Amino acid sequence: MIFVMGASGRMGGSVLRHADGPKRAGTPSGRPVEGAAETVPFDLDAPGTFHAALHRCEAMFVMRPPTATKRGPFDDLMAAAKKAGVGHVVCASVYGAQDSRVLPHRHMEAAVRDSGLPHTFLRPADFMQNLADVHAEAIRDRDEIVVPAGEGRSAFLDVDDIGRACAAVLAAPGEHDGKGYDITGPEALSFEDVAATLTRVLGRPIRYHPVSPPRFVASQIRHGRPASMAFVMAALYTVQRLGRAAPAKPDFERLTGRRPGDLASWAARNRDAFEKDGHGSATS
């Protein structure tokens, strides 16, 4: 059995779709999730939910919830995993977390690393799906993308490729123990490039407007985003602005034997999320 954290979200959902074997999904509600043999209530801030989630699991998929900024809950989770006899932890972090003093993902990585459990880190680039989850309204209603990324580039990743990478690790966990992989898309793009790609796919001009981090944070909070999440988003975009975001790396292709998905193909599949006459959402 594989325990999948964040199973109702995009990363966890991609693991449910691609990893082999029975999966136990952990969600706040515990309601059934497609692709899971079992679903249990799970909350990182509620250690009482850990035992049922991890009981008789040979492996687990761990990720950072958007509001998690401290190490303690991950230490508690790893202690519970060790007690339950989990054999391998696949930890989905973010590109550059291991060297960052700012990104909260570093706390999760430290807890996993110090647990003594066999583990593998997947460090993804920025997700293409964020364009639909975070920026769809601005793209759909105002034909614009507004982020503090300057002219920086990132090798945007289709989140479905995280599930494929996780599946490859769990197929031969011993080969990947203690290793970290940068999971990226096939090319590093600026947001000018992203806007140009969406312009071609959608058939109307999409513009990129770079803003300062404080203006971005204030705008996100004004639109209902929790402050902690807005600051993390600004930090990630600042990493890109400073030229430290993920370049295109070969790790995904080496793990899976396939080329990572590209932005134009993803946007074409999910164009309904950005159409002015609809309020769809990205499907993959």
From TrEMBL:
UniProt feature, compositional bias: Basic and acidic residues: 251-261, 269-284
Transmembrane domains' residue ranges: none
InterPro entries the UniProt entry points to: Ergot_Alk_Oxidoreductase, NAD(P)-bd_dom_sf, NmrA-like
Region (Disordered): 14-35, 251-284
One Pfam family it belongs to: NmrA
Domain of life: Bacteria
Domain spans labelled NmrA-like: 38-237
Xref: PANTHER family: PRESTALK A DIFFERENTIATION PROTEIN A, PTHR43162
Protein name as catalogued: Uncharacterized protein YbjT (DUF2867 family)
Organism: Hasllibacter halocynthiae
